[in-house]
Amino acid sequence: MPLIGNFAGSLFASFISRYAGIVILLILGVIGGKMIKEGFEHRKEPQKVAMRKKLSLGILIFQAIATSIDAFAVGVGFSAMQVNIVQAVVLIAIVTIILTTIAIIIGRKFGDILGSSAEILGGAILVIIGIKAIIA
Questions:
Q1: DSSP 45
Q2: E strand or H helix at 31, and its extent?
Q3: Transmembrane stretches, by residue range (predicted)?
């Protein structure tokens, strides 16, 4: 996505940067709000927490787009700074793989321990990131 953002940034950076924060807030706000709502619902029905929830393809795609918007914006910034885009993309990919693996391991461990509180906390973090995107 940074590579696509780099290309698009050279074409129409002002338009993209003007609306990126709003789009990020909307997407992360919806996902985070849904997680918070479900976390409170699971507190009322604790047996549902024990069942592993599967993500639908639609939710997975929605979350992928939400996180890709940031990477797209970084690519736009790279075009303005004339960064070596190939090196940047490779470094971003390596760091993403490492951090995602660590997050999955930690999430599995603490998700089981914290139950619905983990879902509420995760949703709140997404909403905060969305608010930060529109403020920044």
A1: S
A2: helix 2-44
A3: 12-36, 57-79, 85-106, 113-135
Number of CB atoms found within 10 A of residue 10's CB: 13
Domain range enclosing 41: 2-135
Quick one: pLDDT band at residue 124, thresholds 50, 70, 90? very high
Query: Per residue in 48-105, pLDDT tens?
Result: 545 556 667 777 777 777 777 777 777 777 776 777 888 988 998 899 899 989 988 8
Nearest-angstrom CA–CA distance, 20 and 18:
6
Which two structure tokens, joined as six digits, stand for 114? 């914290």
Q: Nearest to residue 67, comparing CAs of 115, 5, 11, 18?
A: 5
DSSP 51: S
